[in-house]
Write a structure and sequence with these properties.
about 210 residues; alpha+beta; 3 domains; 4-stranded mixed sheet; 7 helices
Length: about 210
């Protein structure tokens, strides 16, 4: 591994440990989003390959129509990185999570597509693939599922992956602060849906009560 690749690998690993961390590629180069850092550069395809191999979410907008890029840049939400997503509806100054929304010409068509996706998961997967979501995210989808809360979830298949103890504590502090952040435990793992961190699991030995 070259010195440059080692630097990229370090940044990519930090992005994987950050809630909402991802790589964004545009017509002017790439930007890695993690923590409070935003390193950027121009070696887009090489860094994209490294990120996909490492399982980091990738957003590549180079082939998107310039009109759509301009619209998203002006009115689309920002991705929440190392912070809570804002509640819907999202606007230009809001921070959104990794959820996705379908935009159609009318409400009737939107309802029909959502209903068809729920009724026929195989067709839903084909539809999502046809609009290029797998190429954008760098993952192969297994199915599209209804989350039970008026939203759709891309199921990339759950995976257990390593994560640092500090990142586990930060995740618990962000999403489960009401339970209290544990001080120590025996082992832990992160739970990913594709490249999106959705939970952590830890195991500790409880001290016996007197």
């Amino acid at each position: 591994m070259s010195k440059e690749e080692f630097g990229y690998a370090t940044y990519i690993e930090q992005a994987k440990q950050t809630i909402g961390g991802h790589l964004h590629i545009g017509r002017g180069g790439f930007t890695l989003h993690f923590g409070t850092s935003r390193p950027s550069g121009y070696d887009c395809d090489h860094v994209k390959s490294l990120c996909i191999t490492a399982g980091l979410p990738v957003i590549d907008g180079r082939e998107a129509p310039i009109e759509l890029v301009a619209k998203l840049g002006v009115s689309g939400p920002m991705i929440a990185v190392n912070r809570h997503p804002d509640p819907r509806p999202w606007h230009a100054l809001a921070y959104a999570g990794h959820e996705f929304m379908l935009q159609t010409c009318c409400e009737g068509l939107h309802e029909q597509i959502v209903r068809d996706m729920n009724d026929d998961p195989k067709w839903a997967r084909h539809f999502i693939r046809s609009i290029g979501i797998e190429e954008i995210c760098g993952q192969q989808s297994r199915r599209v599922a209804d989350d039970g809360c008026c939203g759709l979830v891309l199921d990339w298949q759950l995976r257990l992956m390593p994560m640092t103890a500090s990142s586990v504590k930060r995740f618990i502090g962000l999403h489960h602060a009401h339970c209290g952040i544990p001080v120590a435990w025996r082992f832990h793992n992160a739970v990913f849906n594709g490249a999106t961190l959705i939970g952590v699991a830890s195991s500790a030995t409880l001290s016996p009560r007197p």
